[in-house]
Amino acid sequence: MPGGGQAGLSGLENLWDIPGSVGGAACMNAGAYGTSFYDAVTAVEALFPEREGVARLSREDCAPAYRATAFQGGPGVVAAVHLRLSPDDPARITAAMGRIGKLRRGKLPYDLPSAGSVFRRPEGAPPVGVIMEEAGLKGFGIGGARISRRHAGFIVNAGGATGADILAVVDVMRAAARERYGVELRLEQVVI
Fold first, then answer.
1. Residues 132, 177: one domain?
2. Looking at the 3D structure of the chain, how many domains does it have?
3. What is the arrangement of strands in the sheet containing 54-58, beginning at the earlier edge strand?
4. CB–CB of 174/106 below 8 Å?
5. Which of 41, 51, 134, 145 could hold 165 in an S-S bridge, CB 3.0 to 4.6 Å?
6. What is the average pLDDT score of the chain?
7. How would DSSP label each residue in 129-167?
8. Which residues does the annotation mark as catalytic?
9. Phi-psi bin for 91: left (phi > 0), alpha (psi -120 to 50), beta?
10. φ, ψ for residue 155 (rounded to 5)?
């Protein structure tokens, strides 16, 4: 996601360097390090097939929750997002974004392509990466898709991974969480 450091706009520094787009962040309620995208959203403009023109939805109409909004599973397409950010010193914002970038690069797999975190944080169980480590699945792969050796909550493309490879690894991860903790992992990513 783009940063607001140069513009002197603060409020979303913790989301710096999350792969995706503003529309995707509005649909999924992207979040990291204690900040959710909807912390700064005041309204979203969207197109709906059954309506004519663009509909403006308040933050509340979007029903933001953990990695969820009213856009998921519906036909709406995000066209614009209205944000409320606070003016701040560009140098302070850029420094905060640098700290976040360093944190992310220090523990997340930037060495190989990935689509980011695979699953939502499960309730009543450790984080997905911990579950996969406990199950001995760090580095496990099918075809070109691998559970990252750096952070076992990510699936990386080690070379030539297909969608089928990735979904097969997803199934193995879900089975491990079900077997070890009795939880059903929910995808954070959207499969089309």
1. yes
2. 2
3. 54-58, 41-47, 77-83
4. no
5. 145
6. 92
7. HHHHHHTT-TT-EETTEEE-SS-TTEEEESSS--HHHHH
8. 67, 117, 188
9. alpha
10. -105, 130
pLDDT tens-place string over residues 55-70: 999 999 999 999 899 9
Question: Position 163: which residue type?
Answer: G
* Contact predicate 141/161, CB 8 Å: no
Residue showing tokens 């070109």: 144
Q: How far is it, in rounded angstroms, from Cα 146 to Cα 138?
A: 8
- For the record, the structure tokens of 59 come out as 């933050």
In a domain, 91, yes or no: yes
Domain of 95, in residue numbers: 9-107
Residue 120, helix vs strand vs coil: coil
- Rounded to two decimals, what is the model's pTM? 0.75
Same domain, 59 and 118: no
What CATH number does the domain containing 25 carry? 3.30.465.10
Query: Within a domain: residue 144?
Result: yes
Residue 3: inside a domain: no
